[in-house]
Design a protein that fits this description.
By secondary structure, the chain is an alpha/beta fold. It is built from 40 helices and 30 strands. The protein is 48% helix and 15% strand. A hairpin with a 2-residue loop joins strand 20 and strand 21. The radius of gyration is 38 Å and the shape is globular. The N and C termini lie far apart (94 Å).
Length: 1058
């Protein structure tokens, strides 16, 4: 039983947010809805926040402070956040943990990719790779297909077992359009024979012509080369199905047409080839079986993490609503009002959820615009939305008064939109349902429609003139109405939005604007490919790994513009130096690089920092702000670069959050791998800087946004059928109350690679399924154009790319009569409503499009005064880094027998190993040769020193200490922390302490093998360290140090210092 449902159609710019605010506030004021009994979903977090704050302001203006305060109890948010709140509300009833980890969209995507990689058995992967090669499919595309099938299954609540059988069902449906498999002669053998004979025949003909000194036509020579390639492929069994299509259409010229004819005839059999039919079935079975395996493995991976994704939240809540009477009973009592924003963009799963909630709530208000349903590529299905809306009246609901007054666009633009789309959406929407009323007047003496025509011959040069055209527009004196003041003012860069169909076009547009010195803002990937991110990451990599020579080279190249030849010569010179360690390049001596040396000095601190803190440290120490100014041609570009650095640092936080969610350690090396993965998946979005800049984005990205002036590009982008892709659809009858019933994941194989479509594929597109999917694509393409044309407040600019074949306007041509209204010469145009509007057209020739921008005076691109680096005093003071003071040798005493060293051991590793041997002996009262050997092997110095000698020397040292300070407590490896000078804290570890009644004997071990002649140098070097320990001991225990010693186990002596 459906309760009170109202659907409100909200046209573009018609005040949808105001209507939602009014509905929410009035329900609270009237008492028909309690604050805690309201549930509202929006498309974005920003929209939810805006709705809550507007309703609160409304209530405050009415003096309802109580309700304005209580509105915080309402469940307002995105669908997923609201689902999460409700799952927590019923966690015990559903058997869930109240502390669910929710995977974000990016986390889910990466976990799904990892699951896909782990789910494939080697044999299955080999077979799938073979089949993709056979069908001419790019190797990267088959995994995308599997991921798309998995996502479609998740969005439509299709289980693994149900999904598994859909492979054969798709194959059956697809191959219905192909001829029945042939029997008899093997078509492959027949074609191979025909190719071999044709190649010999054409080769003989060419040789004959050349022998007669007759010029051989180029097409004949190319044909011979093509025949040779095909002959080789079929002889070696390396052919693909697109090769059959190539052979079927093979042409080497009229003179050898008869020789080649048998090849073309034999190749025609590919559509009825039994192997083709069998391999189509094998491929689709592999894809769907793998997708089902991935669904299972993905579910297990989430369980292992104790996590759910967004789809899980929706599925769990939907199942609870359908199967848990206790949950339904509680919600029926709790829900007074449900409001759904952007209803047309709900996924099939969300649609089913909203219908179940509508059965429980006292009132449901769904607000949306079917004309703006443009997210089919994300899994939404406009046919489902339409079916549910058509059923509302049968459920006892109402279709409320449409919001049909545009508060956004001026009178001319509203009339233009009405004229273009008046009949475009029939029969689903009548002209009356499409038509908008205007509220704003036109700007006097100014055209509302501009036509720009750029002559171009290639896709990558289409946008070359965009910067020039927008520069002219900015300097033209064009006026726009300020949205806040309602006053006319000159146009600024921030008043313009440029809409493109594809991401690569966004890149071209931004490049053109930058070339003409026009600031732009664009949400696009590629953050880790920017110079500023590469530089900061190079500093991070150098800190993390001193052997990363590539990172070192990047740092000095970007920081100082050092030519490659210069640093390469310096690197080779360093490696040629005796005893030079590769990782010490540019860190010490006269040739030390200031930044590299600084990064090396900071490296020991990384062990105490989180990956985010290390990333912040790299950004701070790199002085990237100075370089961002040097690399930029305008202050806006400089700010963009710094925004990118901030976005990079923010990714460090995202990485740590994902590690917490996945319950795995967060390391710097792990973060570096994670960032590389982001870049490879194009998930590394650049910062979108605020400010006075032209917005450049896709039509889909422009949904819900507006600008005074909108430039519409890519108007040649015709509708593309999803017949040869992955798309969920309803097969059989549609039940509006069960929108997920009879859902099917469609996936037909594009088997011709980059060749022209075979006849069977054309037959498939002409089939009932093909026509239905083409109609869906055409309808969505119209809706997307509608979204683009309703973003402007004052002026629409229709931009055409003009080729020799004509102007690229095919997208507009999909709507009958639209091209004649939108395009033409500069004139007064009369819309079908009788409104006259001014259209101004301008064309740029190919040479004009290639014009160089005028030179401009250089601008200051940094906003700070460079000062010398100030080294902050460290909070933590390590005694080993202490310096200063005068120290002398007071006494020297022999201890044991000198250790003989073999070869040139790493003295740091040897010193650590001897430290551990002495410490173990101190704790246990002695140490055995096997223990000594184990420690020496761990530190890779077992071949450098004799284990028995080390054991003897350790015993000699213990005996020396016992004899010198008999019956006194001895402590080894003593950690200490105490207040130091100048507000610092001393932190360190003392090798050995002997406790006397009123003082301490302090001893530090050094592995220096030198003779007694160097004792004074050692005392001077390490005296400050021992003095620092002495201060710490006095502060921590109140007892002074009476003697300070250096013990050298390799040199077999102890040195006392003053």
């Amino acid at each position: 039983m459906m309760n009170n449902i109202e659907f409100i159609s909200a046209g573009a710019g018609s005040g949808k947010t105001y209507k939602l605010t009014e509905t929410l506030a009035q329900a609270l004021e009237s008492g028909t809805a309690r604050p805690h009994a309201i549930l509202a979903t929006t498309f974005t977090v920003k929209a939810a926040t805006e709705l809550r704050e507007r309703a609160r302001s409304w209530l405050l203006e009415k003096g309802r402070i109580d309700l304005a305060t209580a509105i915080g109890q309402a469940r307002l948010g995105t669908v997923n956040s609201v689902c999460g709140q409700m799952l927590k509300r019923f966690c015990f009833e559903l058997g869930l943990s109240p502390d669910q980890t929710v995977l974000g969209e990016g986390q889910s995507k990466r976990l799904l990719k990892a699951t896909l990689a782990e789910s494939m058995e080697a044999d299955a992967q080999t077979e799938l790779v073979r089949l993709t090669e056979r069908f001419g499919i790019e190797q990267a595309d088959w995994s995308k297909t599997v991921e798309a099938v998995v996502k479609a299954a998740l969005d439509n609540d299709i289980g693994p077992d149900e999904l598994r059988v859909m492979g054969s069902q798709n194959a059956d449906a697809m191959l219905t359009n192909w001829p029945t498999p042939a029997t008899g002669v093997d078509p492959t053998e027949a074609l191979a024979t025909a190719l071999a004979e044709a190649y010999r025949g054409v080769a003989a003909y060419v040789e004959q012509q050349q022998a007669a000194d007759v010029k051989v036509a180029d097409n004949l020579l190319k044909g011979l080369e093509g025949l040779q390639k095909l002959d080789r492929l079929f002889r070696e069994g390396r052919w693909s199905w697109p090769d059959w299509i190539g052979a079927a259409g093979f042409d080497a010229g009229a003179k050898v047409r008869d020789i080649v004819a048998p090849v073309k005839s034999a190749a025609q059999a590919h559509e009825s080839h039994p192997a083709f039919h069998a391999e189509v079935r094998q491929y689709l079975d592999h894809v769907f079986n793998l997708a089902a395996d991935v669904l299972n493995a993905y579910e297990q991976a989430k369980k292992a993490l104790g996590a759910v994704d967004f789809s899980d939240q929706e599925v769990l809540l939907l199942r609870a609503l359908r199967t848990k009477p206790a949950v339904r009973e509680v919600l029926a009592a709790e829900l007074d009002l449900i409001m759904i924003d952007e209803f047309q963009d709900t996924s099939p799963l969300q649609l089913a959820l909203f219908i179940e909630l509508a059965k429980l709530a006292k009132k449901s208000v769904w607000v949306g615009d079917p004309k703006q349903a443009i997210y089919g590529f994300r899994g939404t299905d406009a046919s489902l939305i339409s079916g549910v809306l058509n059923a509302i009246k049968d459920w006892g609901g109402i279709v409320g008064k449409a919001l049909d007054t545009s508060r956004r666009s001026n009178e001319s633009l509203v009339s233009l939109t009405n004229g273009l789309f008046n009949s475009a959406f029939e029969p689903e929407l009548t002209p009356e349902q499409v038509r908008l009323q205007s509220l704003r007047k036109d700007i006097p003496d100014q055209p509302a429609l501009l036509n720009w025509n750029f002559e171009s011959s290639r896709n990558d040069s289409d946008y070359l003139c965009l910067g020039q055209a927008i520069r002219e527009l900015l300097e033209s004196g064009t006026k726009v109405e300020d949205k806040d003041t309602k006053e006319l003012r000159p146009i600024q860069a921030g008043d313009i939005g440029v809409l493109c169909r594809y991401n690569d076009q966004v890149e071209f547009a931004v490049t053109s604007l930058t070339r003409w010195g026009i600031p732009s803002a664009s949400p696009r990937f590629g953050l880790l490919g920017t110079a500023e991110a590469i530089y900061v990451m190079a500093c991070l990599r150098r800190m993390n790994d001193p052997t990363d020579t590539v990172a070192t080279a990047l740092v000095i190249t970007l920081a100082d513009s050092t030519p490659i030849e210069t640093w390469l010569a310096d690197r080779l010179q360093h490696l040629a130096t005796d005893e030079a360690k590769p990782y010490e390049w540019l860190t010490t001596g006269d040739s030390a690089h200031e930044l590299i040396a600084r990064l090396e000095k900071l490296r020991p601190t990384l062990t105490a920092l989180t990956p985010l803190e290390v990333l912040r440290l790299a950004a701070a120490e790199s002085q990237v702000a100075r370089l961002a100014g040097q690399w930029s041609t305008s202050p806006h570009e400089s700010r963009n670069r710094m925004s990118n650095v901030e976005a990079l640092v923010e990714l460090g936080k995202t990485f740590e959050d994902e590690c917490v969610a996945a319950k795995r350690p967060a390391t710097v090396s792990g973060m570096l791998r994670w960032l590389d993965e982001l870049a490879s998946q194009e998930d590394d979005n650049r910062a979108t800087s605020a400010g006075n800049a032209v917005s450049v984005l896709t039509y889909h990205g422009a949904k819900g946004l507006e600008w005074p002036v909108v430039v519409l590009t890519s108007l040649d982008a015709i509708a593309r059928t999803s017949l040869w892709g992955v798309r969920a659809r309803t097969v059989g009858g549609f039940d509006p109350q069960q929108p997920l019933a009879n859902r099917f994941v469609h996936c037909w194989l594009k088997s011709w690679g980059k060749r022209s479509q075979p006849q069977a594929a054309l037959n498939a597109e002409a089939s009932v399924t093909g026509q239905a999917m083409q109609a869906e694509a055409l309808a969505e393409n119209k809706r997307l154009l509608y979204v683009g044309l309703t973003r402007a407040r004052d002026i629409n600019v229709a931009l055409s790319f003009v080729r020799k074949s004509g102007s690229g306007r095919a997208w507009v041509g999909e709507i009958q009569g639209a091209a004649e209204l939108l395009f033409g010469d500069s004139e007064i145009v009369t819309t079908p409503e009788g409104k006259q509007l001014s259209r101004l057209s301008k064309s740029w020739s190919k040479d004009e499009c290639s014009a160089e921008p005028p030179s401009t005076a250089p601008e200051a691109c940094h906003w700070f005064t460079a000062r010398p680096r100030v080294q902050a005093k460290p909070l933590w003071h390590r005694p080993s880094s202490a310096s200063g003071g005068t120290f002398t040798v007071v006494e020297t005493d022999a201890v044991g027998v000198r250790l003989s060293l073999a070869g040139k051991p790493d003295m740091a590793s040897l010193g650590t190993a001897l430290h551990l041997c002495i410490a173990r002996a101190g704790v246990l009262g002695g140490i055995s040769p096997p223990d000594v050997e184990r420690i020496l092997k761990i530190w890779a110095v077992a071949d450098s020193v004799d284990k028995d000698a080390v054991c003897t020397q350790t015993s000699a040292f213990q005996a020396w200490v016992a004899k010198r300070w008999p019956d006194c407590p001895v402590y080894v490896e003593v950690p200490i922390e105490a207040n130091g000078p100048n507000g610092t804290r001393i932190r360190g570890r003392i090798d050995l302490l002997v406790e006397l009644p009123d003082s301490w004997i302090l001893m530090d071990h050094k592995s220096n093998p030198g003779g007694s002649a160097r004792d004074q140098d050692l005392v001077a070097e390490h005296g400050p360290q021992l003095e620092s320990y002495g201060h710490a001991l006095l502060n921590a225990t109140g007892k002074p140090v009476s003697e300070r010693w250096l013990y050298m186990p390799v040199a077999a002596r102890a040195v006392r210092l003053s």
